[in-house]
């Protein structure tokens, strides 16, 4: 039977939204930012265009991130943003037939947060809406055979949350969701530079420092790099330029990275011994943009004594897995939440 509706997987992230369309792969990858006119509420821009406005808007326009810590912080703005993104990827016959949409959420979301995401997905025009937990989607996208009776450990570090889980037989056995991830790394850099240099920098500058010279630990002497950073001197209020080295980021990241390492240890301690044995054999799989922080895998290896591997296409794993999960509904039926949940 020919299907006219499109099947879409959405990684509705705090920092970035990725949309996977069945048969076409990842069709959209844009920052989860929306700009609107303050007085009227009219949408001015979404995604890349809105991201360029962050911190640069005049008084009557505001650019914001409507997602916080992996969940909806502003329902109306999230709905408008998602609607704009879905319109960009729905093509051809899909414009006349409502799509099936699978959205991933952090493993620690509350019932209220689940309902909000499902409701927003239905409001953007989904024929059927499903939710899948992020570590499960990440495992599918990383190529893990989740239906097998063996344990696999996933550490998914996104923009707003880090999801740690041990998966077996198509479900999550033990998990923990931490509201510490890539955005917290940026804030750690801002705090460190403000404290050490009396210099105030913005979020975008902090993200650039993280991506270009950031590291979890120093493994080799040639790991050290430097970047020029501009900001406002907090003493005299004038512009100032300094150089930030990899050593500085290692120091800045110590606290958030330690919290993530402690979370991994707690999940291992709460897991059945047979599954821990499987994890020791198969290693820990890291996914998400935060997994690309230099030497983060080495830090977890030192902390746990277990082999750690960063998944191929780490930033895309959740989006790919969310889309692929639409073909695995019979296997995942106990793990998924569908829009029938809203009628309870």
Explain what the structure shows.
The chain is an alpha+beta fold and 344 residues long. It folds into three domains: 7-137 and 319-343, Nucleotidyltransferase, domain 5, CATH 3.30.420.40; 145-180 and 256-313, Nucleotidyltransferase, domain 5, CATH 3.30.420; 182-252, Actin, Chain A, domain 4 (Alpha-Beta Complex). Helix content is 36%, strand content 27%. The protein has eleven helices and 19 strands. The chain has helices at residues 48-51, 75-89, 111-123, 134-141, 182-197, 203-213, 246-270, 273-282, 296-304, 317-324, 329-332; strands spanning 7-12, 16-21, 25-31, 34-37, 43-46, 61-64, 67-68, 71-72, 100-105, 128-133, 152-157, 162-168, 171-178, 199-200, 226-233, 239-245, 284-287, 308-310, 337-338. Strands 3-2-1-9-10-19 form a six-stranded mixed beta sheet, sandwiched between helices. Strands 13-12-11-17-18 form a five-stranded mixed beta sheet, with helices on both faces. The model has no long low-confidence stretch (mean pLDDT 90).
């Amino acid at each position: 039977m020919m299907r006219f509706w499109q099947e879409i997987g959405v990684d509705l992230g705090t920092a970035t939204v990725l949309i996977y369309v069945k048969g076409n792969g990842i069709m959209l990858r844009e920052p989860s930012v929306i700009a609107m006119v303050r007085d009227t509420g009219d949408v001015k821009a979404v995604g890349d265009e809105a991201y360029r406005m962050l911190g640069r808007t005049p008084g009557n326009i505001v650019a914001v991130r409507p997602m916080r810590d992996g969940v909806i912080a502003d329902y109306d703005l999230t709905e408008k943003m998602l609607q704009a993104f879905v319109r960009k990827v729905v093509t051809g016959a899909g414009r006349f037939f409502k799509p099936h949409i699978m959205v991933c959420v952090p493993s620690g979301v509350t019932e209220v947060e689940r309902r909000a995401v499902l409701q927003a997905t239905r409001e953007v025009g989904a024929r059927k809406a499903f939710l899948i937990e992020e570590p499960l989607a990440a495992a599918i996208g990383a190529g893990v055979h989740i239906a097998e009776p063996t344990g696999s450990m996933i550490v998914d570090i996104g923009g707003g949350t880090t999801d740690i889980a041990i998966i077996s037989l198509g479900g999550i056995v033990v998990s923990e969701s931490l509201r510490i991830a890539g955005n917290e790394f940026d804030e750690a850099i801002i705090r460190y530079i403000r404290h050490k240099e009396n210099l105030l920098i913005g979020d975008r500058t902090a993200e650039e420092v993280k991506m270009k010279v950031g590291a979890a630990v120093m493994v080799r002497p040639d790991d050290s790099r430097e970047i020029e950073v501009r900001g406002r001197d907090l003493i005299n209020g004038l512009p100032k330029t300094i150089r930030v080295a990899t050593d500085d980021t290692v120091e800045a990241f110590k606290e958030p990275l330690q919290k993530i390492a402690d979370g991994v240890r707690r999940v291992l301690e709460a897991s059945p011994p047979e599954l821990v044995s499987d994890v020791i054999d198969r290693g820990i799989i890291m996914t998400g943009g935060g997994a690309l922080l230099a030497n983060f895998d080495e830090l977890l290896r030192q902390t746990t004594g277990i082999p750690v591997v960063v998944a191929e296409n780490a930033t895309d794993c959740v989006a790919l897995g969310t889309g692929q999960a639409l073909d695995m509904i019979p296997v995942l039926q106990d793990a998924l939440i569908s829009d029938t949940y809203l009628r309870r």
